[in-house]
Write a structure and sequence with these properties.
alpha+beta; Pemi-like Protein 1, Chain: D; three-stranded antiparallel β-sheet; two-stranded antiparallel sheet; 5 helices; 16% strand
């Protein structure tokens, strides 16, 4: 069954002010009074308390879906460490080559230091 909105729910400061005036009511009654109720085609009223509580938290400045949630969707991050494979090869992953803006066919000079390796990109031959 599709739901029909009865009114636009309150958000932000307006929501906080309204909730303060409804201090004696239950959570369900507060959510309904703030517009977090819908009526189905069958005429049944449903109160969305979860949406109401999320809006209330956001109005207080508490974001449930903040930067931590965004980081979870990013996937793995580059570790800046390479491992020598069993065949003796070093593989530089796509995360590194994309970050450096490298293209297929780019050439490098490998500089061996005392405790490090350095890749120096050579100028393309015109």
């Amino acid at each position: 069954m599709a739901k029909q909105k009865t009114s636009e729910p309150l958000t932000g400061g307006a929501l906080l002010e309204k909730v303060k005036t409804l201090a004696t009511l239950s959570k369900t009654q507060k959510a309904k009074a703030c517009g977090y109720a819908t009526v189905t085609k069958g005429g049944v009223e449903r109160v969305n308390r979860l949406q109401f509580l999320k809006a209330l938290l956001e109005a207080e400045g508490i974001a449930l879906d903040g930067p931590a949630a965004e980081r979870e969707r990013e996937g793995r991050s580059a570790s800046y460490r390479l491992t020598v494979h069993a065949n003796g090869h070093l593989l530089i992953g796509a995360a590194y080559t994309q970050r450096m803006g490298l293209q297929p066919g780019d050439t490098f000079e490998l500089i061996l230091g005392r405790k490090h390796l350095q890749l120096k990109q050579l100028d393309p031959v015109a």
